[in-house]
């Protein structure tokens, strides 16, 4: 195989709220391609829309990418040779390119007020005009000439002069030959002096040496504008990889408004492990490394990575698959590591307090890990280990057999003397209750479980007794006995 040229990729989110899961999806493929080719993965913050900025959003982007193991090699606060990596800090960079485009006749000033543009759009809609978009009223006019006409605004924008032969076809590494619609005379510099996305993305991708532009398929229709800018500015074109849009199980586009899982922070809040989320994203629109083997490390994903394996139809965002993966990764952690993750999870939620003994949790976590889906599933199942006594639930009390008092008395007698490890406890109780007294295991151990945990269903009984210790175990059984 020929050596791959080191790729430079980037993810370019706008800090307009808490990060979208799509940002992580793009970042995963960006990072994989950079890793596959020995290149670099860049984070660029696209904050040119000053009205939509949300404080803290950039920080959340950094944190959530790092959490997933997808931290960039270059970016704001990280450094790199192509900074600054925030577009708001690059305003002076864009200006000469705008001037060059105007001087070369590829761009022009437009003083049309937003009222005029709104009216124009409405007229085009009512008349069902074949020609839509800007009508070039300002093209070729000086400021003075334009000021004589209605709908004039003092501060102009700059628009692209899109020629009739604008390139509409391009090659996409996922989709092959793609045809996009003919573009409008796109604004590239806004009245506030900030560039629009279209200009900034081309200038920055070029100056940052980006070789492969990985982004959502919603940007396909913008690509002809970008190709024109590349051509006019004399920049070599990058490779394009337009990723499929993630979809809800009903095939609608995944959005933060309709699906909580569209928020990247949601996964951490819910108690998913980052390795499970990363593995889940690897399977969206991308085949498993081997048929039927869905669990794969990032390194395994990278080793076989190829753009032509990416699906072009929107992958379904199926949280059930994620739940399964999360359970798998939970069970692959050792008890100490799983305990740390559970403690961190509850600490982040402000739910960790002195009532929970970490060592007890560490001992008990293997009893419940088999049935855990989320990190938050352990504590509720183990709550009875962290309280002085237990309150017996109504259904648990109702489940007690008629001879519960007799069972408890015999059980208590055994537990007073038996060595207090799970195995001896089980052997001792079984010998007395099941073998000697002839009680069916269900009725022999049921009352003990209710006394110990307050519930009909609990983690394994004998191990729970061992963890609670002899004194506490006896105290609980006696407490229940006293109520019968
Ligand atoms: N700022 C754009 C976004 O958030 C980036 C698109 C691109 O990657 O070119 O979708």
UniProtKB/TrEMBL annotation:
Chief location bin: cytoplasm
Keywords assigned by UniProt, alphabetized: Aminoacyl-tRNA synthetase, ATP-binding, Cytoplasm, Ligase, Nucleotide-binding, Protein biosynthesis
Motif 'KMSKS' region: where in chain: 253-257
Transmembrane residue ranges: none
InterPro entries in alphabetical order: aa-tRNA-synth_I_cd-bd (IPR045462), aa-tRNA-synth_I_codon-bd_sub2 (IPR020751), aa-tRNA-synth_I_CS (IPR001412), aa_tRNA-synth_I_cd-bd_sf (IPR008925), Glu-tRNA-ligase_bac/mito (IPR004527), Glu-tRNA-synth_I_codon-bd_sub1 (IPR020752), Glu/Gln-tRNA-synth (IPR000924), Glu/Gln-tRNA-synth_Ib_cat-dom (IPR020058)
MF GO annotations: ATP binding; glutamate-tRNA ligase activity; tRNA binding; zinc ion binding
All copies of domain Aminoacyl-tRNA synthetase class I anticodon-binding, residue ranges: 356-479
Residues annotated to bind ATP: 256
Enzyme class: ligase
Motif 'HIGH' region boundaries: 13-23
Ranges of residues in domain Glutamyl/glutaminyl-tRNA synthetase class Ib catalytic: 8-324
GO biological process, one term: glutamyl-tRNA aminoacylation
EC number per UniProt: 6.1.1.17
Database matches in SUPFAM superfamilies: An anticodon-binding domain of class I aminoacyl-tRNA synthetases, Nucleotidylyl transferase
NCBIfam families: gltX_bact (TIGR00464)
HAMAP family from the UniProt entry: Glu_tRNA_synth_type1
Family per similarity comment: Belongs to the class-I aminoacyl-tRNA synthetase family. Glutamate--tRNA ligase type 1 subfamily.
Protein task: Catalyzes the attachment of glutamate to tRNA(Glu) in a two-step reaction: glutamate is first activated by ATP to form Glu-AMP and then transferred to the acceptor end of tRNA(Glu).
PANTHER family for the chain: GLUTAMATE--TRNA LIGASE, GLUTAMATE--TRNA LIGASE, MITOCHONDRIAL-RELATED
Protein name: Glutamate--tRNA ligase
Origin species: Arachnia propionica
């Amino acid at each position: 195989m020929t050596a791959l040229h080191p790729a430079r990729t980037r993810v370019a989110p706008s800090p307009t709220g808490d990060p979208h899961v799509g940002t992580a999806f793009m970042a995963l493929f960006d990072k994989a391609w950079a890793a596959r080719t020995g290149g670099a993965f860049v984070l660029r913050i696209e904050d040119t829309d000053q009205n939509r900025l949300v404080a803290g959003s950039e920080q959340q982007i950094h944190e959530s990418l790092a959490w997933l193991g997808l931290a960039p090699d270059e970016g704001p606060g990280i450094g790199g040779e192509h900074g600054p990596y925030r577009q708001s800090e690059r305003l002076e960079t864009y200006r000469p390119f705008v001037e060059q485009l105007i001087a070369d006749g590829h761009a022009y000033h437009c003083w049309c007020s937003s009222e005029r543009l709104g009216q124009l759009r409405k007229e085009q809609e009512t008349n069902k005009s074949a020609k839509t978009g800007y009508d070039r009223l300002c093209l070729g006019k000086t400021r003075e000439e334009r000021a004589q006409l209605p709908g004039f605004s003092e501060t102009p924008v700059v628009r692209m002069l899109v020629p009739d032969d604008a390139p509409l076809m391009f090659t996409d590494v996922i989709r092959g030959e793609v045809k996009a619609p003919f573009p409008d005379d796109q604004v590239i510099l806004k009245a506030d002096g900030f560039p629009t996305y279209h200009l900034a993305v081309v200038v920055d991708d070029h100056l940052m040496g980006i070789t492969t532009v990985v982004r959502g398929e919603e940007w396909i229709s913008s690509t002809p504008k970008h190709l024109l800018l590349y051509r006019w500015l004399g920049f070599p074109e990058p490779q394009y990889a337009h990723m499929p849009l993630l979809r809800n199980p009903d095939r609608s586009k995944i959005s933060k408004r309709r699906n909580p899982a569209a928020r990247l922070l949601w996964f951490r809040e819910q108690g998913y492990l980052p390795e499970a989320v990363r593995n889940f994203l690897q399977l969206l629109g991308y085949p498993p490394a081997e048929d039927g083997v869905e669990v794969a490390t990032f390194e395994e994903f990278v080793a076989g990575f190829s753009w032509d394996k990416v699906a072009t139809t929107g992958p379904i965002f199926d949280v059930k698959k994620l739940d399964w993966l999360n359970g798998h990764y939970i069970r692959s952690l050792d008890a100490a590591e799983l305990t740390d993750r559970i403690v961190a999870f509850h600490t982040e939620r402000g739910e960790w307090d002195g009532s929970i003994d970490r060592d007890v949790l560490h001992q008990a976590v293997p009893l419940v890990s088999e049935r855990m889906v989320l990190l938050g599933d352990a504590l509720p199942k183990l709550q009875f280990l962290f309280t002085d006594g237990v309150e017996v639930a109504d259904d648990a009390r109702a489940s007690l057999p008629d001879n519960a008092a007799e069972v408890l008395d015999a059980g208590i007698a055994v537990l007073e003397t038996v060595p207090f490890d799970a195995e001896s406890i089980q052997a001792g109780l079984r010998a007395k209750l099941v073998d000697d007294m002839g009680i069916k295991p269900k009725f022999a151990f049921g009352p003990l479980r209710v006394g110990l945990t307050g519930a009909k269903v609990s983690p394994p009984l004998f191990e729970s007794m061992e963890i609670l210790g002899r004194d506490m175990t006896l105290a609980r059984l006696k407490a229940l006995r006293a109520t019968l």
